[in-house]
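Give me structure tokens for this 173-residue protein.
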Amino acid sequence: MKKSILTSLLFVSVVSLSLTTNAQGMAYNPKVVAPANPYHETAKKTADEMDVNINAVRDFRKSYKNASDVKWVLNENGASVYFMNDGIKMRRSYNSRGVKEYTLRYYDENRMPLDLRQRVKSNFYDHNIVIVTEVTRNDQTYYLVKMENVKEYLTVKVGEDEITVFERTGKIQ
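Here you go.
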């Protein structure tokens, strides 16, 4: 009796996992490819620069003198600033004391460092690169590279020494 219950539960789990994976594939809209975002913010509230910690504002102004389309938002852990710099969309986040936490840069294949592009393409030669998210935190940089081919959408994480699959979603055939 216990074996049949366990077998039934295992079967239901496998079927529900399969349905969830297919639902994710159906929900993916290839016309709107969003960059991978390892840091999700909650409770966003657009803010004026005057509402943000002065240390964060000073660091941002010093680091990005030519920034355009600047938009500050407050979140539960501090503040983030969304902006354009040299034609690249960026986001920098600060904690509540105004200390830099991380920086995200979003760009396409044409702006990728050549060695990074070569590493990714040599491992995933049958995929097209759609968008890259460059993540810098604690003076370390890694990349989330979103790609696709005829069968799937794939995001890989590229560090100094390794490439790992971060996210994989099958396409509906």
